[in-house]
Protein: Mechanosensitive ion channel
Organism: Salegentibacter maritimus
Amino acid sequence: MSNQLKWLFLSFSIFLLPISIYAFQADSVANSKELPSEEKINEPNKSNYLPNSLEDYNEAYYQLTRLNNPLGLAPNKFNLQTPQATLEHFVINCRNKNFKDAAYALNFNLFPNNLTEEEAINIAQKLYFVMDQRVAINWDGISDRPDGQVDISTTTNQAVAGAPRRSVVFGEAAIENRDIIFRLQRVKYKDYGAFWLISANTVENTEDLYQVYGPTFLDRYMPTWSQAKIGTVPLWKPVLTFILLIFSYMLGKVAILLIRRIALSFNKPLIMALSKKLGVPAALATGVLFFYISLNELISYSGAYSSTIYALLLAIVIASGTWFFMRILDFAMRYVAEHKIGDLTSENSHESRQLFTYLSVARRILTFTVVIIGTAIILSQFRSMEKLGISMLASAGLATIILGIAAQSTLGNIIAGIQIALTKPARIGDTVIIEGRWGYVEDIRFTYMIVRTWDLRRLVVPLKTIISDTFENLSITSPHSLNEIELYVDYRIDVEKLRMKFKELLENSEEWDKEHPPILQVTEMTEKSLKVRAICSASTAVMAWDLHCKLREQMVAYIKELEKGIYLTRSRVEVKEPHFNSKNIKKPNE
């Protein structure tokens, strides 16, 4: 278990370090002195807010009555004519630490009318810090046309292709349970030409976003010598990341030791077995969760892939928790099956077989459900997957038809498994005859049933076959079984003497369960022999088979010894005087 955990964390470390270094390369934070303050801008009372600046609706732009920017209208030298140009203006000036010029790309109309120039610059700096930390801008998807139109029409953008747009989304981030959408909006102020700004709603959320995604304590107070860079990455960040990985690994080892110590203190086999099952998944979940929280709180990720890295770490945490829960579920099911269910091979094991079948089907259904829920939660952490899901829903009708046709057999077998669990035509441990082959039901899986034949082979039967086709279940109501012995004897045999001998042999057999009396009957006659059928019974199908084989052997031996075997089947041939006799032929000299 220790080696498994060691290799698991080693692989995780090797995988994460290159990603973290790559993500740090776009880091915009040079040193702690250049970081904006975490204090919110003081908001005066509501009387300082002006009325709504929007005029009548226009599909090409938002008509504004005022531009609440303390810096004034943007100079003509700034290109704010297209969505891409406005966003480039903001990002480039922020990278060059020219936050005053960058603030011209922001719409401050939802802020108080007494907003100062210094506060506007501070907001621009904070917004850029948040964007650099959490927003992956898809520059190819942002139009470089004044009307914001999409040049190429496809099945997914026909609604906007060729039509003027006055709002463009360029990113998103989450605050608690609320999604913040980053937008560019086309506005027209008085008689000036229309131009693009980062929307007032996006700018208004800057303070809340900065409180969540702002710089950490270490970003502000790390010593100057630690700010030395490897390429574009501050030295302390990869070093601290590696230290956190080591500490997370040690924490996982400690979690395993604690689980074992707690299990030993109870001194119960059940808890000891459970601790062995839960050790590795608990250690992985503990180590990764600690790494995720500490990385999020101590080190400030930035760059286009930072949101993906955090989502990936959270996905690993969720996967570890899912694995941990599946281990508990699997252990509970196995414990009940092994300790609370009786012997499935005994002759009175109907309830045990039924309960074991319920547990087997329930275990697989619950495992499948847990995996589906865990996968759904993991995929929900990646916003690209959410967009993929929306695109799939757009063509849900066709996709449903295709999926239904492709998975018809699989889904049918899964539903058949649920039917088997409810209607119980076959249970684990039952003796069945399927397609002329005799065997035991060894296991019932999601889509098929495994039957162990008498020669120790495994017959894999789709569950739909069990529901739709006919098969024999020798244990469905009672394990008691009847077998018949067929004998062919000569016409001259004394059937009553044969019947008495069969009764004697059956009553002296230990396998006979005395549930069915000895019966021997003449069931058929042919031109050569009589067909005699004898019936024997036993408590189980296996014992009935063994009894019937033994009695057949003994009855054949008795017939063979009876008057030197004259009553065995035989073919009769009648010999008559031939028309031609060689004795009547005369010789030539006679």
Summary: The radius of gyration is 42 Å. Residues 14-33, 388-399 have pLDDT under 50 and may be disordered. The first helix runs from residue 2 to 24. DSSP finds 17 helices and 14 strands in the chain.
